[in-house]
Amino acid sequence: MKSKIYPAIWFDNTARQAFDYYASLFHEVSIMDSNPVTVAAKVLGTDFIGINGGPAFRPNPAISFMIVRETQAEIEKIWNGLAAEGHTLMPLDSYPWSPYYGWLSDRYDVSWQLYQGKLADVNEQSIVPTLMFCGPQQGRCAEATSFYERIFKNFVKQGVLTYPDGDVKGQVMHTQFVLEGYTIAAMDSGVPQPFTFTEGVSLVIECDDQSEIDYYWHSLTKDGEESRCGWCKDPYGVSWQIVPKNLGGILQANPRASEALMQMQKIIMEDLKK
Questions:
Q1: What angle do CA 148, 152, 157 make, to 5 degrees?
Q2: What is the pLDDT of residue 165?
Q3: Under CATH, domain 5-188 is a member of which superfamily?
Q4: Which of 56, 138, 242, 261 has its CA 20 to 30 A from that of 94?
């Protein structure tokens, strides 16, 4: 069953190439749908969308994907594949939070954290998107978490650790929460960073009907920013796509619906169907 919330990655017209590459590394990748615009896939059981969007945006470590594996051998195998033509952010090593951990960006600039631990600690979700509040959003992780708790009706907080000292003392070192059954982690950066959230990685919310689209759109854009085609930014700069869960079917049923979608900000389902 497809998640209600899942990440979308913006590629420079290499989405299918990228997911074929991930399939060669993870061996648990299913391509659910592939067309010139998007690729829908499951990676280690986690839903993803790849967007062939051109060079306008690139992923960066402000949103990374934490892969949780229970053995060092599994982590090393994935690390060695992702490291080819990529670059290391934190080398594989033993850290206070994990006996074997590393952070890198792959050849497509997609950022991955590899974490040895128990799947039970992340609600059996093998890949956990991790939001890093940095740049102009530095120190706002706790505030953003409280905002998401107010917005999402099915929200479960699963602990907070704060930095004990330094310039970031009291800011969030790590927190984990569940939105509509989907596990997400978040943190404030421990050091200054030259980047922040962009459309390079966004979070999709599939809505059951127009009222749900209206609810999430107005909730997330209040003090945020509206964009086109169901895209918006929340007050903390995180990009969201608020879409009907049958958007693909609507677009396939009416060739003119895609043109109408391009003119919309918030998606109006009835207008698309017409």
A1: 60
A2: 96
A3: 2,3-Dihydroxybiphenyl 1,2-Dioxygenase, domain 1 (3.10.180.10)
A4: 138
